[in-house]
């Protein structure tokens, strides 16, 4: 303890997540874990995200539980009324890369009597070269964090090799079931259709986004290491391959399991400390009155949008299945709809018999609820890990980005229960993620000396 107190105030880590809910959620868990280890932590988001956190997340609980974790923000350069939806990610990304640099630099070099100088930057790999550039300029070591799955990151990283071995490009729809044989650590596991969304489409409309994504992945080679939200029993073979390429690979996941286990730290579960929407906890009361493992939880994450026609298709399927269901329909989920009219009246009415709809759920708690028997998911990486840790079997409806590859990986896993046990083991003392997290802590401390 004395040693920890002595260290407090010496090590100051800045975390810079990509401005999306999934990235903020997972990096916030990391920030909380570091704060519990007496690091001074600055969690740096965009002004837009900062405002949403202050509106919807439990900031009071956050600052009481983690007094050494500070939220700060910078502009993302976009006008306030910009939609910042999935279609706008490219705009956001390029504005961040041009506009944010000097602002980040100012934060990195600022120092006051109360706040020690920054000794390490943990930057979201989504921001590509941005964090590496800034850290290089001011001489602060940078570690990249990857919010996407390790398998997606690796499949993108290896794209040049796949082109070289003529496994790419994909030659149209008829080529989709062909096996990818030369992806190190994942040989003969993926079909073309399972590759990250960037690989899809014809060569002409695919090359530019793929090129820049692969370029960003290669920027991680400039970092001192890479932090992945996964664990050895899940991604061992490809982690071994990555270790041949990167100087340090910290496989510390599932991060929320570290926080919630209470075995590693004396911390209570920490729901909703990074929520972008108002969490509707009434669904937990509804779940309390449902039979054991009887409810299908349906959620497509924070970015996915669907048409009203597709929403209705899902609804007919859910109602006709005669199963109980809890469905998250975000205020902005139905493309082109007025926010206030998001759930069509017939859906609201026809759901009452066996279903429950909310705008945003306390997902981790929902998945841990005894009434939940399955999860219809878009296969976002956080959702996948949260379901896996809770031992809830998944039905996958991958939408874009890493979700195709995440859903394919499920097919190769042991039973939901067995995977949950392995995940919990990994974050317990002596487990692989537990050890990797402690390696990360030691490494960050060494950067402050
Ligand atoms: C996207 C990608 O899909 C994901 O793979 C990538 O890693 C990050 O960017 P998103 O689509 O939002 O993220 O999915 P996901 O990674 O599953 O993150 C959603 C998060 O929102 C989860 O942590 C989930 O617990 C939370 N959530 C979702 C809620 O808290 N309440 C809800 O009602 C729905």
Can I get a quick summary?
The protein has 449 residues and is α/β, with parallel strands linked by helices. It contains 19 helices and twelve strands. This is Glycosyltransferase.
Care to describe what's here?
GO terms for molecular function: quercetin 3-O-glucosyltransferase activity; quercetin 7-O-glucosyltransferase activity. Its EC number is 2.4.1.-. It comes from Phaseolus coccineus. With 449 residues, the chain is of the alpha/beta class. Helix content is 44%, strand content 13%. It has helices spanning 2-7, 21-36, 47-56, 59-65, 89-109, 129-138, 150-157, 159-164, 203-219, 232-243, 255-261, 282-288, 308-320, 345-351, 363-368, 381-390, 403-410, 416-427, 432-447, and strands at residues 12-16, 40-46, 69-74, 118-124, 142-146, 225-228, 249-251, 295-299, 324-328, 355-358, 372-377, 394-396. α2 (21-36) packs across α11, α5 (89-109) runs parallel beside α6 and α7 packs across α9 (203-219). Mean pLDDT is 87; it is low at 1-8 and 263-267. The site of uridine-5'-diphosphate-xylopyranose has 24 residues, from α2, α15 and α16.
């Amino acid at each position: 303890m004395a040693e920890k107190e002595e260290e407090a105030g010496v090590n100051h880590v800045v975390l810079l997540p990509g401005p999306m809910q999934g990235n903020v959620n997972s990096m916030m868990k990391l920030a909380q874990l570091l704060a519990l280890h007496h690091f001074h932590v600055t969690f740096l988001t965009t002004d837009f995200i900062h405002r949403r956190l202050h509106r919807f997340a439990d900031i009071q609980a956050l600052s009481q539980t983690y007094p050494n974790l500070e939220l700060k923000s910078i502009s993302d350069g976009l006008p306030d009324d910009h939609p910042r939806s999935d279609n706008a990610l490219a705009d956001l990304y390029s504005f961040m890369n041009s506009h944010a640099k000097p602002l980040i630099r100012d934060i990195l070099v600022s120092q006051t009597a109360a706040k020690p100088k920054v000794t390490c930057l943990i930057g979201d790999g989504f921001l590509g070269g941005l964090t590496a550039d800034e850290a290089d300029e001011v001489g602060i070591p940078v570690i990249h964090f990857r919010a996407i799955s390790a398998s997606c990151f690796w499949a993108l990283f290896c794209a040049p090799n796949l082109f070289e071995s003529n496994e790419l490009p994909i030659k149209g729809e008829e080529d989709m079931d062909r096996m990818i044989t030369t992806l190190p650590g994942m040989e003969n596991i993926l079909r073309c259709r399972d590759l990250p969304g960037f690989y899809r489409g014809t060569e002409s409309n695919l090359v530019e986004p793929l090129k820049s994504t692969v370029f960003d992945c290669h920027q991680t080679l400039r970092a001192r290491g890479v932090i992945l939200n996964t664990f050895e029993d899940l991604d061992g073979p490809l982690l071994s391959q990555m270790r041949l390429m990167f100087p340090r690979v910290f496989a510390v996941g599932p991060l929320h399991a570290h926080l919630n286990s209470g075995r590693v730290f004396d911390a209570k579960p920490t729901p909703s400390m990074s929520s972008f929407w108002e969490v509707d906890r009434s669904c937990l009361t509804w779940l309390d009155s449902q039979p054991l493992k009887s409810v299908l939880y349906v959620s497509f994450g924070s970015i996915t949008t669907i048409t009203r026609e597709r929403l209705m298709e899902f609804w007919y399927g859910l109602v006709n299945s005669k199963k109980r269901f809890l469905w998250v329909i975000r205020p902005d989920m139905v493309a082109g709809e007025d926010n206030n009219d998001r759930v069509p009246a017939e859906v609201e009415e026809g759901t009452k018999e066996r279903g429950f709809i909310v705008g945003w759920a306390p997902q981790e708690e929902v998945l841990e609820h005894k009434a939940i028997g399955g999860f219809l998911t878009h296969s976002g990486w956080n959702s996948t890990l949260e379901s896996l840790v809770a031992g809830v079997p998944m039905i996958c409806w991958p939408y874009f980005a890493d979700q195709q590859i995440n859903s394919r990986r499920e097919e190769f896993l042991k039973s939901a229960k067995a995977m949950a046990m392995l995940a919990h083991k990994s974050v317990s003392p002596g487990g692989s993620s537990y050890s990797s997290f402690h390696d990360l802590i030691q490494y960050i401390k060494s950067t402050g000396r």
